[in-house]
Amino acid sequence: MKFGTYFAYWEREWDADYASYCEKAAGLGFDVLEVAAGGLAQRTDAELFDIKRAAQENGVEITACIGLPPQYNTASADEGVRRAGVEYLKRIMDAMYKVDSHILGGIIYAYWPCDYNQPVDKERAREAAVRSMREAADTAESLDIVLAMETVNRFEQYIINSAEEAVEFVKEIGKENAKVMLDSFHMNIEEDGLGEAIRRTGNSLGHFHIGEGNRKVPGKGHMPWAEMGAALREAGYDGAVVMEPFVKMGGTVGSDIKVWRDLSEGASVEQMDEDIREALRFVKKQFVE
């Protein structure tokens, strides 16, 4: 297994200087830096080259994640919106290729967060999502990119809420590079057992996000880390395990993630660095040793 962190742990906006975070992640002991896929799509070729160079110089891999905005809803009943979503994913993947990034995860099969003021037609939306992911997977395959469909809780989306639904979804896509992405935060809400959900996913698992049930760094809550680690080893998972904690209020990140109190307990950047460094040591002990 490789271990990573999401840049937004330190940020209040979804865009940032990803090149500098390559150095930061490596200095804290991580193998992987995860960035916002939408941010990559906005970069010039020169900026993408700088990110690639920073990653190579610091020995970290880059993965990308996104919850698609409504105008790019790949599960939309509006064919124009659905097509726009697929084309947007293709632009993201083109940028990923330029930074040598090979995992695109998140809510790429729909939009996020779901607006439940609108009517829900799960069967229709799921059919459109599968069609979109088949199209996107063809482009992804040509760029050596894996598409990882994230299971999320019922309050944020309705198409894929469990490992079981995710496995069935990727089977229906029918592409080798279509995989499942699990996230301990969402699993804690939706699954009967976290270890069993990982085992049920098996070799369909392509990416894994971790954090406590309250969004703190691993080790500061009640999650069954040893159980998850044992299940990952049993499943033979050798991909990336990426921390995705959110502990600070403010900005678009705080608003989107619904962080309404300071979960860091007033921590400085230096203390946040130490917290996630200790979390990495903790997780490695639970998952590998």
UniProtKB/TrEMBL annotation:
Xylose isomerase-like TIM barrel domain ranges (all copies): 23-259
Entries under Pfam families matching the protein: AP_endonuc_2
A GO molecular-function annotation: isomerase activity
Keyword field: Endonuclease, Hydrolase, Isomerase, Nuclease
Top-level lineage group: Bacteria
Cited Gene3D superfamilies: Divalent-metal-dependent TIM barrel enzymes
Name of the protein described by the UniProt record: AP endonuclease, family 2
Record lineage: Bacteria, Bacillati, Bacillota, Clostridia, Christensenellales
